[in-house]
Amino acid sequence: MDIETTAAYFESRQYLYEKLVNEVEYILTEKIKETGIKPASISSRVKLLESFREKISRKKYRNPMDQMHDLAGVRVVCAYQSELDTIAEIIESNFEVLERTDKAEELGVNKMGYSGRAFVVKLGSRYSGGRYEDLTSLRCEIQYRTILQDAWAIIDHQLVYKDEASVPEGMRRDINNVASLLEVAQGVFDRVKESRSEYIEEIKDMAKNASAFLRLPLNFDTVLEYARRSYPDIEPSEKLTRLLLDDLSMEKYPTLRELDCVVGQAKEAVEVYQQENPDWFKNSTDFLTKSLGFIDPDFRQNHAFAPRTREAFEKYQHLLPSHD
User: What is the pTM for the complete model shown?
Assistant: First the structure.
């Protein structure tokens, strides 16, 4: 095999692999979005020419364009182990799968390492024609792993050691300990996610009884559910809910009942202001923050309200209940 001739051929086709990874990344992004999973990252890359030359020289490939499956690569990084099974289902449902690998299974229980899983795929016949011209037969590696698995892979790559046997004996135990700790941490994160899911279901069940629901402590999950129940036609904003809680005195609002009281007191003023500025009520959290702004001077001082909204707090004071 002539390395330079093969490298030149690969270089002439790099643009196709660029198109391929863009397509695969787009498909994965859209399909994952449909599941509600929020991946930490989805990235892609095409093998660099120098890396291609080095690998075919080191591996002594006879036919590198067929034997190298990582010329194009896409990586999906998720927060939780449970999400990886969903990612795998998406890959299997939307691509032609040629190969599956699971590094954890390959390592076994006593080996060093902490890695994720991967597929080698083709776009397949469903994407033939049009912009997929010349792409359907090309291979792409899709790696999918958790954030902690990705962190281990990055550090492991920086250490240079390619296998356990090449690691100096004095370091081997420490590296294995780190891998074990990361695995334990992943388990804790997964259990916390499961516990939170159960807690959210409990909140929804409690919401069926208004009195019991309002006795719940004020926190991110209870405020989101309160917003959904109070304004069922629009979703709350998670980002704005966090900002609301940051600016709120938890001593003054220990339960949802105190928040509900404020919303009731400000209801007329908020409705009038909404009619005046409908574009400023894009989500149900907007109703909560402006209700608090009308009633609670401490929140009004802490929160980053626009000048027009601050003017409205003064303009519509006469619509608030009298405290005489």
Answer: 0.74
